[in-house]
Amino acid sequence: MDNGSCCKGCSSRLVNKLALKVTPHPQHYKLDWRSQEGGVVVENQVNVSIAIEKYKEKNWCEIVPMEIGHIILGRPR
Known about the structure:
mainly beta, 1 helix
C-alpha cells in the first residue's frame, strides 16, 4: 500500500470474474498514465478486501481496463 499514491486501480476483468459489487465513482476523472491512446475516464469503483496473513484492509479502487495486473495498490506521484 502506498499512502502517497495517486490511484489504486482494479482491472475490469477481475471485477467481472469475481462478480464484485460496482459503485459509481463520486467524481469522474481522466486517467492518463495507463494508456498512450489518450487515457480512460474513471466512472466506477469497487471496495476490495486485501488479506496477507494477519494484515487485513479494504481499499476503494478505480475500475480500469488493464492487462498489466489485476490490481495496483499504489503508484508514486
